[in-house]
Specification:
Layout (H helix, E strand, L loop, with lengths): L20 H10 L5 H21 L5 E3 L7 H8 L5 H4 L5 H10 L9 E3 L6 E3 L14 H12 L4 E6 L1 H6 L14 H17 L4 E5 L9 H15 L6 E5 L8 H6 L5 E5 L5 H8 L3 E11 L9 H12 L2 E8 L18 H4 L5 H17 L18 H8 L11 H12 L16 H11 L5 H22 L14 H6 L2 E5 L6 E4 L2 E3 L3 E8 L5 H9 L6 E5 L1 H6 L9 H21 L4 E5 L11 H19 L7 E6 L8 H6 L4 E4 L7 H8 L5 E4 L12 H12 L20 H19 L2
Parallel strand pairs: 1-4, 4-5, 5-6, 6-7, 7-8, 8-9, 14-15, 15-16, 16-17, 17-18
Antiparallel strand pairs: 2-3, 10-13, 11-12
The structure holds glutamine (GLN) and zinc ion.
Length: 749
C-alpha cells in the first residue's frame, strides 16, 4: 500500500484566482447574472489553472479538493452530510443549500462565522447535534480528483480531519458536545476513504490543526483511536495527517502511535515540533512532511536555515518531504503581478506561486544535497529605520498607557454628550456603493482630481449624516466612504508600509482583503482622518465618532516584518494613532472609536504564549488611546463573541464603551463579561450584518431584553454586530429603523 509521498508539496493553494475570478463569478451567481453551470465552468477553469501551475513548478505531490465556493469547513460539513435540518428542509438545489448555509436566507440565519485559528480567514461553524445523521458525500472530492487526473495530475484529496471538524463545530442550541459524535463521524470518513480508494486515490490529506492548541487527554486519546480506526479500513488510500499553526505537544506521540503513513508538522509557527520529533525516537516507516516555508507571511524563506532544519528531520525519519507550513490560502497569489513595488521590498518577498518554487528547491536540495541556493539577501536599507520613532519608544513610561479613573471619565463624558439611555450607534462604515468604489478607483488612477474626489466623498458623508439623523441615531459616524479596507487605508498613510496592487487574500466567502506589508519603522506623516471626521461633525450637532483602527488589528491584518518583535512594531503603530487621537480631540471630536476586531484572532494557540501577547496587545491599545482627556469617550469594537482567554484583556483595554458581535450567538457573550466584572459601557450587536437578512423590530427588542437582563440599561448601547460596508441600503435602512425603534421602545419601560 505504501506509495512514495514525493519530495515537495503545499498543504493548499489560494482558490480565488489571480484576479479574484472566483469572487466575481460567485457574486454574479448570487445576483442572478449567471447560472450554476456558468459558475461551475469558471470554477473548473480556476482549479485547472492551479494544478497546472503547481505541476509546471515541479511540485511532485499535488493536493486537490482545496478549492471551495465559500469555505472548506462548509465543504467538509457537506462531505459528511452535516446539513442542519433547517437548511435541508428549504428544498433548494445542492448548490443553493450550500450558499444558504453560508449566507442565510430570509427564513433562516446563516451558520455562525468565526476565525480560523489565529488567522484572518473565517470559516462557517458546522452545527452538529446528537441526532445529526452523518452520511458520506464524496462527490466534490471525487470530481476534483478526476479533473486533476484528466490533466495528468495524480492528486491528493484534502479534507478537514474528523477530530478537528468536530472540535470546531457547535451544537445548534449551543448545548451538547459535537465531539462526542466522533465514533459515528469516523464511520463516515471510513466510507469516504473507501470510495476514494475505489476511484484510484492513493493519498489523502486529513487536516488536524486543532491539535496544535491546548487539548485534553481525552481529546488526544480520541484522536489516536480515530486514526487507528481509519487505518484499519481495508481498502483505503495512504493517509497524511497535516497539522499546522503551531506545536503539536502530546498529540504528536499519539499520532505517531497510529499506522498513518505521513504526518505534517509546522516548523515555522511551531519550531518546538523539531525538538519533539527528535525525542519521539526513530520514525520508522513514516513520512514526515516538514512545513519549512511560511504559508502565512510574505517574506522569502531563509533557505539555508530551512535546509538546516530539514536536515535535522531527515536524520530522524525514513522519508521526508518539504512543504509549506500551512495552506497558501493565507498569502496572495503571485508576486509577478506586482510591478509597482519598491524593488528593495519586492526582492525580499515571496507570494504563493513563489513559495511553491521555494518548496520545490528545498525538496531537491534536501534529497540531493545541492548547495546551489540563491544568495542570501543583504541587510535592510538604513532608510527603513526612523530615529525619531525609536527615540519616542525608548522614552515611554507606564503613565503613557493609563487614563483617569472610569467613574470620573463616565461622568465627564455624560456631562458633555448628554446621551439618552440605550444610546444607538453604528460600528463605522456605511454601504460601499458602486459609485463610491468607482470614485475611489478613478482617484487612484489619476482620472479624478483631489478636489473632485473630496467633493464626492463629502457629498456621501453628508448623505450618511442626514440618514443617521433621520433614523434617529444618537452617536453618528461619517461612514468611511474613503476607505476600502481599513488596514489598507491606514497603511497607505503610514511610513514603513508597502501596498500591493493585486495581493488579495480571502477573508471569508467571496470577501478578499489586500493586506499591506510592514517592512520598516512606522510613523505618521500627517493627520490621517481628521478632515473627514471634522467635516462630518460640522454637519450635525450630534456627536460624530472618530474612527480609527487599533494597533493590534493593523498588525494582524498586515504582513508584519520578521526582523523585530511584533510588540515593538505595535507600539510604533500605537504612537501614530495616539497622535491621531489627540488631533481629533483638539478638532472638537468627542467620541473616538479604535477598532480592535483582531485582538483575539492573533492570540497564540498555546496558553504558554498567550500572556506575553496579551500584555503587548493591551499595552499598545492603551498607548494609542490614553493620550486624550477624561471627557473624550473612547470606544472599541470587537468582531467576535467567543471571548475565552481574551476576556480579561478586553476589560484591560479600559475603553469606555465596547461593541461586540453577539447576534449569532444570542447574547451569550454578556454573561461572560458580567462574570469577570466588566463595568463599563457595552454594545452587544443586535443585527447580524454578515447576512443580508433584516432583523425584525420584535427580534431586536427581544435581543435587547435579553441583554438588559444581564447589563444595567445605563451601560447598554444599541448597535449592529459590525460595520455596514458589505450591506445594501435597503437592508441598512430597514434594519437601523428597527434598531432605533426597539431602543426607543425599551427606553419607555
Ligand atoms: N469601523 C469598521 C467598520 O465599520 C469596523 C470593521 C470591523 O470591525 N471589521 O467597517
Ligand atoms: Zn466588526
Amino acid at each position: 500500500m505504501n506509495t512514495a509521498f514525493g519530495q515537495s508539496t503545499v498543504l493548499g493553494y489560494p482558490r480565488i484566482g489571480r484576479n479574484r475570478e472566483l469572487k466575481k463569478a460567485v457574486e454574479a451567481y448570487w445576483a442572478g447574472h449567471i447560472d450554476a453551470e456558468e459558475l461551475e465552468t469558471t470554477a473548473a477553469a480556476l482549479r485547472r489553472e492551479v494544478w497546472q501551475a503547481l505541476r509546471d513548478a515541479g511540485l511532485d505531490a499535488i493536493p486537490s479538493n482545496t478549492f471551495s465556493y465559500y469555505d472548506h469547513m462548509l465543504d467538509t460539513a457537506v462531505a459528511v452530510g452535516a446539513i442542519p435540518r433547517r437548511f435541508a428542509r428549504l428544498g433548494l438545489s445542492e448548490l443553493n443549500t450550500y450558499f444558504a448555509m453560508a449566507r442565510g436566507v430570509d427564513a433562516e440565519p446563516a451558520l455562525e462565522l468565526t476565525k480560523w485559528f489565529d488567522t484572518n480567514y473565517h470559516y462557517l461553524v458546522p452545527e452538529v447535534d446528537g441526532d445529526t445523521v452523518f452520511a458520506a458525500n464524496p462527490a466534490k472530492a471525487l470530481r476534483e480528483y478526476r479533473e486533476a487526473r484528466d490533466l495528468g495530475v495524480e492528486s491528493r484529496p484534502v479534507l478537514v480531519g474528523p477530530a478537528t471538524f468536530l472540535l470546531l463545530s457547535k451544537a445548534s442550541d449551543g448545548g451538547g458536545q459535537p465531539f462526542d459524535r466522533l465514533p459515528d463521524l469516523v464511520d463516515v470518513y471510513a466510507d469516504l476513504l473507501r470510495t476514494l480508494a475505489d476511484a484510484g486515490v492513493r493519498w489523502v490529506q486529513l487536516d488536524e490543526p486543532a491539535y496544535v492548541g491546548e487539548r485534553s487527554e481525552a481529546e488526544i486519546a480520541a484522536l489516536r483511536d480515530a486514526y487507528r480506526r481509519l487505518c484499519a479500513v481495508e481498502q483505503r488510500p495512504t493517509i497524511f495527517v497535516a497539522t499546522y499553526f503551531g506545536t503539536l505537544g502530546d498529540a504528536l506521540p499519539a499520532l505517531l502511535d497510529t499506522p498513518i503513513e505521513a504526518i505534517g508538522v509546522d516548523l515555522v509557527a511551531g519550531p518546538g515540533n523539531l525538538r519533539q520529533l527528535a525525542s519521539a525516537g526513530p520514525l520508522r516507516g513514516k513520512t514526515i512532511v516538514a512545513g519549512l516555508v511560511d504559508g502565512r507571511n510574505v517574506w522569502r524563506t531563509d533557505l539555508r536555515a530551512a535546509i538546516t532544519a530539514g536536515a535535522v528531520v531527515t536524520g530522524l525519519a525514513d522519508h521526508v518531504a518539504v512543504s509549506t507550513s500551512c495552506s497558501l490560502l493565507h498569502v496572495p497569489v503571485d508576486l509577478s503581478a506586482e510591478t509597482a513595488l519598491d524593488p528593495d521590498v519586492r526582492q525580499r518577498l515571496a507570494f504563493a506561486r513563489q513559495k511553491v518554487d521555494e518548496v520545490v528547491l528545498l525538496g531537491r536540495a534536501l534529497r540531493n544535497g545541492t548547495t546551489s541556493l540563491p544568495a542570501p539577501l543583504p541587510a535592510s536599507p538604513a532608510s527603513w529605520y526612523d530615529a525619531t520613532v525609536r527615540g519616542r519608544l525608548a522614552a515611554l513610561r507606564a503613565a503613557d498607557r493609563q487614563r483617569g479613573a472610569y467613574p470620573q471619565r463616565a461622568a465627564a463624558q455624560q456631562a458633555r454628550l448628554h446621551l439618552p439611555a440605550l444610546p444607538t450607534t453604528t460600528i463605522g462604515s456605511f454601504p460601499q456603493t458602486d459609485e463610491l468604489r468607482r470614485a475611489r478607483a478613478a482617484y487612484r488612477a489619476g482620472q479624478l482630481d483631489e478636489v473632485d474626489y473630496t467633493r464626492r466623498m463629502r457629498l456621501e458623508v453628508g448623505r450618511v449624516i442626514r440618514l443617521q439623523e433621520r433614523l434617529g441615531l444618537d452617536v453618528l459616524v461619517h461612514g468611511e466612504p474613503e476607505r476600502n479596507d481599513m488596514v489598507q487605508y491606514f497603511g497607505e498613510q503610514l511610513s514603513g508600509f508597502a501596498a500591493t496592487e493585486y495581493g488579495w487574500v480571502q477573508s471569508y466567502g467571496s470577501r478578499c482583503v489586500r493586506p499591506p506589508i510592514i517592512y520598516g519603522d512606522v510613523a505618521r506623516k500627517a493627520p490621517m482622518t481628521v478632515e473627514w471626521t471634522t467635516y462630518a461633525q460640522s454637519l450635525t450637532d450630534r456627536p460624530v465618532k472618530g474612527m480609527l483602527t487599533g494597533p493590534v488589528t493593523i498588525l494582524a491584518w498586515s504582513f508584519v516584518r520578521a526582523d523585530q518583535p511584533s510588540a515593538d512594531t505595535a507600539d510604533q503603530v500605537a504612537l501614530a494613532l495616539r497622535d491621531e487621537c489627540r488631533d481629533l480631540e483638539a478638532a472638537g471630536i468627542r467620541v473616538i472609536q479604535v477598532d480592535e476586531p483582531a485582538l483575539r484572532e492573533t492570540l497564540p494557540l498555546r496558553r504558554a504564549d498567550q500572556k506575553a501577547y496579551l500584555e503587548w496587545a493591551v499595552g499598545a491599545f492603551r498607548l494609542a488611546t490614553s493620550g486624550v482627556a477624561d471627557d473624550t469617550q473612547v470606544h472599541t469594537h470587537l468582531c467576535y463573541s467567543e471571548f475565552g482567554e481574551v476576556i480579561t484583556a478586553i476589560d484591560a483595554l479600559d475603553a469606555d464603551v465596547t461593541s461586540i458581535e453577539a447576534s449569532r450567538s444570542k447574547m451569550e457573550v454578556l454573561d461572560d463579561l458580567a462574570a469577570i466584572g466588566y463595568h463599563r459601557g457595552v454594545g452587544p450587536g443586535v443585527w447580524d450584518i454578515h447576512s443580508p437578512r433584516v432583523p425584525s423590530h420584535e427580534e431586536v427588542v427581544q435581543a435587547l431584553r435579553r441583554a438588559a437582563a444581564v447589563v444595567p440599561v445605563e451601560r447598554l448601547w444599541v448597535n449592529p454586530d459590525c460595520g455596514l460596508k458589505t450591506r445594501a441600503y435597503p437592508e441598512v435602512k430597514a434594519s437601523l429603523q428597527h434598531l432605533v425603534a426597539a431602543a426607543v421602545e425599551l427606553r419607555g419601560h
